[in-house]
Amino acid sequence: MAEAAVKTNPVAGEEREQTDGFNLIIDALKLNGLNTIYGVPGIPITDFGRMAQAAGIRVLSFRHEQNAGYAASIAGFLTKKPGVCLTVSAPGFLNGLTALAHATTNCFPMILISGSSEREIVDLQQGDYEEMDQLAIAKPLCKAAFRVLHAADIGIGLARAIRAAVSGRPGGVYLDLPAKLFGQVMDAEAGKKSLVKVIDAAPAQLPAPDSIKRALDVLKSAKKPLIILGKGAAYAQTDDAIRTFVEKSGIPFLPMSMAKGLLPDTHPQCAGAARSTVLKDSDVVMLIGARLNWLLSHGKGKSWGDAPKKFIQIDIEPKEMDSNVEIVAPVVGDIGSCVNALLAGMGTWPAPPADWVSAVKTKRDDNVAKMAPRLMNNNVPMDYHGALGVLRTIVKERPDAILVNEGANTLDLARGIIDIYQPRKRIDVGTWGIMGIGMGYAIAAAVETGKPVLCVEGDSAFGFSGMEVETICRYNLPVCIVIFNNDGIYRGTDVNASGTDDPAPTVFVKGARYDKMIEAFGGIGVNATSPDELKRAVNAAMDSGKPTLINAVLDPAAGSESGRIGNLNPQSKLKKK
Questions:
Q1: Residue 307 neighbours by CB distance under 10 Å
Q2: pTM of the model
């Protein structure tokens, strides 16, 4: 246990060891193996951070709660344990809430712990310091929300938060701790007994045997089958079973971005370079831990073509089935149990039709061949393809490194160009497609895995979390940040049509030197103006393991509106006069 105080029992006249809310929270976290906290210190949780650190918990202090929250969320994805984010009340809580909602949407287990004002003041709206009804605000945006009012309930409160975060479909949980709770005192022995070690927090959910037979029957009948792997499959960490199932089936597979590496992108069955063809022409599609949301055009529309489709879906959440299209073979259960059940039921499995496999291979090889010369260019200033061609080679040579990626063009093009060879080595913006996750993800990836991190950022995306380069330097993390700097959002060539001196809304400072930022904090900054300079700089950074920021100078004209999702940007139907 954390250090407890000794006080006199006024009734019995004897000295009894006592503890308080601070120590009970720390003990409850450690009892459940939650040994890392991401957060920003301040009233009323400053002393808690100090005490947690003294008790052996690693406490990483950020410059903004949203970035700490993103770190906690991706820690949950990488470890399957809830990542913990600690914030102050009201504004700090609201900053962390963005990341909590993001974690819930992406099915990452995370617990946001925030200090708060006392209930009696909040309920009467008496104007306390940072007064806010945080529990009520959090509830609609996360999987579960709890408030602990009494020290004796801390163990139960944290246990409920852990179980809610990781069981079933994982997600974000809010835990509200009013300021008075931290200082509440109780008998130490009673406090110890009140703590709960969560047992079997995420029990296996076995699929119904009939659902397995139905899925295999539908898959076996396919003339043009396709398997789509989602980040739920990566989160499950049943990599061997998934690989065995895909290879035994012989079916082409399409990995979503954070599922890349479950099987290498260079695997002969990988259809990543033939995405348009396999979505349009397939007749049976099996989804493993993937959802038919906007990232897959909701399973319908032009990208899916006119050919009739049958969908098989494996997911732990029953309500996910039929969310956009009819699922003819729903398989409900955890990914590991479902895939192992499918393997057990396959028996002697026929190879998929040779003409389909050949067509997919031909399209994939043609697209790879067409792309190759663009990735080899040595243009100055650089374009996206020349710069990404360099990073593609570096990642191939360093498959154990973790790639963090965000931006518009930087994200969309990197997703298709940079091959990934191992599971959970690519982490990016996820379901919402937001920007701002970069530095938080990079920090947590380095902390949780101990692996080197290559963080590839658009210049706009970097702006959301760029101050965390100080955090990276302070903790001396092996993170190499590459900023694709084309002077603006999408590109740096837009012009203000009004005739005033203000720059266009999408244009940044010309010739900005982001590399100078990290030098201010003791890190290494490099300005790279050609693919050769970029290659040397990234390799040196990855070899050194030192915090590095490389300002990769791109042609300001490089880039397109919204990357590949420009169709989501409404266009004005009014003509200028």
A1: 11
A2: 0.95
